[in-house]
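hey can u check if this looks right to u? its 160 residues, i copy pasted from the old doc so theres a chance i mangled smth
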Amino acid sequence: MDWTIKSLSRTSFASGQTFTPGERVTCVIFRGAEGLQRADLSEAEAREWQPPGEVLGRWSRKAGDESDSTKRRLALASAEEVFLAFQQETGGAGPDKDLLLQLLALMLERKRVLKPQGRPADGRQRYWHPRLQQEFSVPHQLLTPELLSSLREQLHHLAF
C-alpha cells in the first residue's frame, strides 16, 4: 500500500482565501473531532488561530504554482515535512502518533530519504537522514491489518 500525503492546500483552512505564490503558509496537523486533520493557514492567521484539538506537528512552507511536474516532488516533500514536524512536536504523544511516525518512516525509507540503522530494538527503529545528517529514533511495532484499519478514517484527512 502506498499513501500520498496531501500537498499544500490552495486555500486557507480558516478563511478560505486563496494563497498567492510565494506566500508563507503554516501547516498544522491536529487531533480533531473527526480524527487527524491538517490545516494550512497564512502566517498571520496561524498566529491567532487556535486548533480545535491537540497539535501533533507544525511547519511552514511557501505557496507555489503546483504544476504536474512538481506534484510528485511536493508529495514526497510533504511526507518528509510531516515526519520532521512529528519528530519536533512534543505534544500529541500516543499510539496513533507513534503509528503514523512509523508509517511515515517506512514511506521515506522506501523513497530512500531515510536509511534504517540496524534492526529494531526495545520498540524503536533508528533511521539516518543523509541530507540532514541527523539520526531519528522512531517507534516500532508489528503492523497488523487491524492496527492499520483502526487508523483508516483518521488518515483520510492526511492522505489520499
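The radius of gyration is 16 Å.
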